[in-house]
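Task: sequence design from structure.
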């Protein structure tokens, strides 16, 4: 196991009716900017629950955060924060809303000329406003981590940044608020959270037995409950297990002391920015390609994953590893996602521009840092 330092300060408030606890979690006399997305929280009653819990606080609304939050939209919120002297940000939504809120918290305190440089040039974040979360869509784990992903529509770039200043002070997780989610969002959340675990696990063995056991348990839960949730959308136990699994998939715990591979995520950014594909959809296409291209490097963990997640016990190591890749792709298809570029209207002529983004950002991806734009294109060619 590799050396590591670990701290996660986020307070989790989990269960039915816990939105009512919101007022007690906020600092007294806070001036709050309530950040949300397209308005579904008003249709499903979550907005009313939040507003009731915030009685006595000075609250401003900022809606309209996109499914892949736009830099330009976030800057409008930054203007409100500065003009109205907002002291606390509350994200009510899924990962996109939370990520946008994190960027707003950092950008509102940024002293440089161009806040985009926080993402594009890794400009340091020295201060940020405090924030909290009411989670409505389990998927990204953003409710319990310190990272965010933002899209710049002018430059067609999608980038991430991290800073410990952006851990939420608290996150409220009520599984009942997920009952009304559209099936597509539920499926995307299941696949996204599953692949978060995979990219921290599927590298090479370092004898990190605790991390491996946690990761394998999470994958089993997400796989088992994910296959049930679309047929049983009102089942509290299924929703609760998926919500908590998604949070643990990317709250930094299982990635401590182990090599990680986020190449599917990084390559997927260009797919979303240039073609508008859902984030989880990009991962469902790319991950099997990474597994296939890096088969020898990942074979030992593929065999381990096959045994402990999918129950694959027959055959040679090579056969079991290939069966593991096939089982992952089949799972994504069972959740209703496509796994090939051609199914999304993306052709071979499009791949150069997609792969070029890797070199543009100076990335060397994968656990061995050996994926440049040339390798990225070869991986993509496997997914046509």
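Answer:
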């Amino acid at each position: 196991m590799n050396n590591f330092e670990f701290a996660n300060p986020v307070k989790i408030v989990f269960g039915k009716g816990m939105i009512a606890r919101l007022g007690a979690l906020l600092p007294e006399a806070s001036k709050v900017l309530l950040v949300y997305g397209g308005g579904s929280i008003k249709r499903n009653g979550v907005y009313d629950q939040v507003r009731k819990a915030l009685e006595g606080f000075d609250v401003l609304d900022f809606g309209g955060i996109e499914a892949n939050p736009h830099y330009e939209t976030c800057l409008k919120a930054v203007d409100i924060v500065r003009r109205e002297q907002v002291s606390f940000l509350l994200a009510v939504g899924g990962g996109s809303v939370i990520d946008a809120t994190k960027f707003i918290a950092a950008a509102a305190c940024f002293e440089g000329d161009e806040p985009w440089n926080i993402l594009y040039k890794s400009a340091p974040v020295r201060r940020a406003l405090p924030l909290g979360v009411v989670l409505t869509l389990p998927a990204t784990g953003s409710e319990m981590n310190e990272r965010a992903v933002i899209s710049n529509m002018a430059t067609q770039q999608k980038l991430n940044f991290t800073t410990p200043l952006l851990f939420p002070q608290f996150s409220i997780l009520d599984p009942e608020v997920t009952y009304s989610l559209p099936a597509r969002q539920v499926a995307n959340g299941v696949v996204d959270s599953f692949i978060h675990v995979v990219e921290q696990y599927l590298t090479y063995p370092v004898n990190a037995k605790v991390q491996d056991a946690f990761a394998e348990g999470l994958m089993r839960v997400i796989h088992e409950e994910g296959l049930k949730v679309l047929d049983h959308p009102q089942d509290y136990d299924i929703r609760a297990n998926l919500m908590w699994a998604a949070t643990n998939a990317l709250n930094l715990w299982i990635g401590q002391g182990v090599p990680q591979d986020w190449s599917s995520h990084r390559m997927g950014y260009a797919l979303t920015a240039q073609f508008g594909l859902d984030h989880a959809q990009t991962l469902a296409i790319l991950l099997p390609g990474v597994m296939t291209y890096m088969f020898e490097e990942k074979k030992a963990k593929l065999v381990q994953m096959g045994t402990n997640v999918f129950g694959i016990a027959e055959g040679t190591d090579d056969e079991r590893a290939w069966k593991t890749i096939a089982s992952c792709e089949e799972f994504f298809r069972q959740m209703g996602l496509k796994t090939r570029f051609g199914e999304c209207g993306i052709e071979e002529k499009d791949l150069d521009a997609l792969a070029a983004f890797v070199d543009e950002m100076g990335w060397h991806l994968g656990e061995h840092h050996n994926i440049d734009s040339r390798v990225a294109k070869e991986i993509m060619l496997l997914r046509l």
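The CA atoms of residues 31 and 331 lie 45 Å apart.
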